[in-house]
Amino acid sequence: MYRLLTIEFQKIFKNRASKFLVLAYFILLTFIAFIVSIEFEIGDFKLRIADQGIFNFPYIWHFNTYIAAWFKMFLAIVVVSMMANEYSYGTLKQNLIDGLSKKEFVLSKFYTIVVFAFASTVFIFILSLILGYSFSSYTELSIVFSDLDYLLAFFLKLVAFFSFCLFLGILVKKSAFALGFLFLLFVGEFMVTQFLRWNLFPKTEIYHYVSQFFPLTAMSNLIDEPFSRLSAIKNIEATITGESIARIYSLQLTEALIVLGWTLTFIWLSYKLLQKRDL
C-alpha cells in the first residue's frame, strides 16, 4: 500500500495544477472560520451569523461537515485529472510495463482517494474543535464529542464521490468531459426526482424511497442541511406552518450502506473497465 501511495503522490505533486487545487481546497476549508464575521443588517435589525449558535457543540459537527462537503469539487478535479493525465502522458501504460498490475493500479487510485478523504476529515475535526472551543457555549466533553457521526458521514461522502469521479475519469479519459458528465448526471437525477415527486407519486413519499438509491442523491442524503435546526429558522417555520416539523438529521445506517454499495460498485467498474480496455 505504501509503495502504491508513493507512486500516486509523486504524480500528483509533480503536477503544478494538482498541487494548486489540493492547496486551494484546504485553504478554502479554513474559510469556514470567516463565517463568524458575517453580519446582516436590514434597517435596525442586525444579524450576526456566529451569534445564531452555528459554532456551538455538538451542532458545529453538522454545520462544518455540510459546508465543507461543498468544496469537494476541488479534489474531484484532482481525481479526474489523475486519470486524464495517465492517458495523456502515457504513465498508465508505462506503469503496467514496469510490472504494476491493473488491480494494483486501481487500488493505488483508491488508496489516494481514501487518504484525501481522511485528511479532509481530520482537518475539519481540528478546525471544528478550534472554532467550537472559541465560540461554543457548551464545552463539556460529553457534549463536545457527541454527534461525531457527521464526521463519518463526511468521510463516506468524500470516498464515494471521489470513487465516482475516478470511474468517470477511466470511462471518459478526458477530465473536462468527465466533469461535464458529472454535471449532467446531477441535473438528470434532479429532473427524474422532481418527475417522480410531482408526476408519478404526488402527495406520497414514494419518490423519496426511489431517489435515495440514485448515486449523487445517496451521497447528498448522508448529511442533511443543518439550517433548519437553528432556533431562528424553527421559529419562522413554526410561525408560518403553525407547528414544528420533526426531522431526522443523524446518519442513518440504510443511507450509509447505500453509499458504501455505490463506492464498491464504482471501484469494481473502474477495475473491470480497465481490465477490458486495450491500452
Quick recap of the structure?
The protein is mainly α and 279 residues long. Helices cover 71% and strands 3% of the residues.
Account of the 3D structure:
- This protein is mainly α.
- It has one domain.
- The protein has 13 helices and 2 strands.
- A two-stranded antiparallel ribbon has the order 1-2.
- Helix 6 packs antiparallel against helix 8.
- The chain is globular.
- The relative contact order is 0.12.
- The mean pLDDT is 87.
Average pLDDT rating: 87
Radius of gyration: 21 Å
Overall geometry: globular
Q: What's the quaternary structure here?
A: single chain
Helix content percent band: over 70%
Beta-strand content: under 5%
Number of domains: 1
The N- to C-terminal Cα distance equals 24 Å
| Secondary-structure element series | HHEEHHHHHHHHHHH
Topology, element by element:
Elements: H1 2-13, H2 16-30, E1 39-42, E2 45-48, H3 59-69, H4 72-89, H5 91-97, H6 102-135, H7 141-144, H8 149-172, H9 175-200, H10 206-211, H11 215-221, H12 231-241, H13 253-276
Helix pairs in contact: 1-6, 2-4, 3-6, 3-8, 4-8, 6-8, 6-13, 8-9, 8-13, 11-13
Q: Which features characterize this protein?
A:
single chain; mainly alpha; two-stranded antiparallel sheet
